[in-house]
Amino acid sequence: MATTWKDFLDQTEKPDKFDEKSKEIIEFVNFQLRSKRHIVLVTSGGTTVPLESKTVRFLDNFSVGSRGALSTEYFLKRGYAVIFLTRNRGLRPFLRHVPKTNILDLLTITDSKDVKVKPEYEQKILQVLQTYQEIKNENLLLTVEFQTLSDYLQLLKACSVALQPAGNQAVLYLAAAVSDFYIPKDLMPEHKIQSSGGPLKLSLQLVPKMLEPLVKEWVPDAFVVSFKLETDKDLLISKALQAIDKYQHQIVIANLLETRKKEIFVVTKETQDHVSLSDADIKNGKEIEELIIDCLVEHHHQFCSVENV
Ligand code: PMT
Predict the structure, then answer these.
(1) How many other β-carbons are positioned within 10 Å of the β-carbon of residue 31?
(2) 258 domain residue, yes or no
(3) What residue's CA is closest to ligand 1, atom 13?
(4) Does 304 fall in a domain?
(5) Which residues form a coiled coil (predicted)?
(6) pLDDT per residue over 140-180, tens digit each?
(7) What is the ipTM of this complex?
(8) CATH number of the domain residue 9 falls in
(9) Which of 245, 224, 246 is nearest to 299 (CA)?
(10) Ligand 1 site, residue 211, Cβ cutoff 6 A
(11) Domain interval for residue 202
(12) Structure pTM?
């Protein structure tokens, strides 16, 4: 029998420093509430599924966290405060504009033995750092990291529950690529699986869908945006509509693996909008996340105004 969401959360360990992280999240939300700001939880990157308790091996997925990192920047631009729930090694907002992945390649040592940014990178770093520091000084961005599926789901619940007092001012933007399969603790070997045991057969259980308690219990008044990723275009819209019908949340962003960086569908109960970048947009470096966030902000404002009538 499939596990319920309650059993799943009861039976899996909480991530390291869970209480500390939960407190930080609550304080961040309270600060934004006092400042009367909209708050969005952006989830980003893929979850890992450990194969052993003392984990050497785990299953992972393709997501690098571009969608979440880029969307975070555009939400901040539109005046939202952001809780960025991200895979520990996922792409980060702002840092993605830094021209070199190895920070040491950006730096140089002067004759007087000071460390300085190389002149050719100064302008770009100044620009990125200025924006980042403004965001940090105004306390508009809180980054919370996860690695495993259970870390993610435990923290997703903590963030959602913390957002409850924000009511319809809160947006949940669930762009993380979340595993649908896992090995329960009581079926997981403790030690590293030995190759001397021959070919490995894995039996994975279904992960309960957390959208259900999230919408019904954790943040019932929030504006919830989930994602639907498919590889077969014939399934995309029908799966998105099924999700809306089943979970009764506001929006599904439907995307195909191969075209996700240039086109998506914004699906509501009543509408299906195709959002895409033109060739000229792509040439000019425009990003689809800017269009997605513009569209969602409009939907969110409408949602708040209807709810407030
Ligand atoms: O990070 P990038 O490389 O930029 O890629 C971005 C993306 C393709 C990962 C992103 O755009 C995307 O589509 N993310 C959602 C992928 C996904 O998990 O889809 P799904 O069909 O498995 O799940 C649908 C929804 O159910 C998701 O919003 C998820 O949060 C939710 N879910 C999933 C599993 C689970 N146990 N409980 C859930 O509630």
Answers:
(1) 15
(2) no
(3) 229
(4) no
(5) none
(6) 999 999 999 999 999 999 999 999 999 999 999 999 999 99
(7) 0.95
(8) 3.40.50.10300
(9) 224
(10) yes
(11) 5-221
(12) 0.96
End-to-end CA separation in angstroms for the chain = 44
- Is the pLDDT at 101 greater than 90, yes or no? no
Q: How many Å separate Cα 200 from the centre of its chain?
A: 32
Pocket probe mutation, ligand 1, options 89, 211, 291, max atoms within 8 Å of Cβ? 211
Q: Which of 8, 73, 174, 216 has most ligand 1 atoms within 8 Å of its beta carbon, as the pocket-test mutant?
A: 174
What DSSP designation does 167 have? G
- 21 touches 15 (CB < 8 A): yes
Atom of ligand 1 nearest to the CA of 176: 14
- Residue 70: phi and psi, rounded to 5, are -65, -40
- Domain tally, the chain: 1
For ligand 1, whether the C-beta of 227 sits within 6 Å is yes
For residue range 201-260, what is the model confidence (pLDDT) as tens digits? 999 999 999 999 999 999 999 999 999 999 999 999 999 999 999 999 999 999 999 999
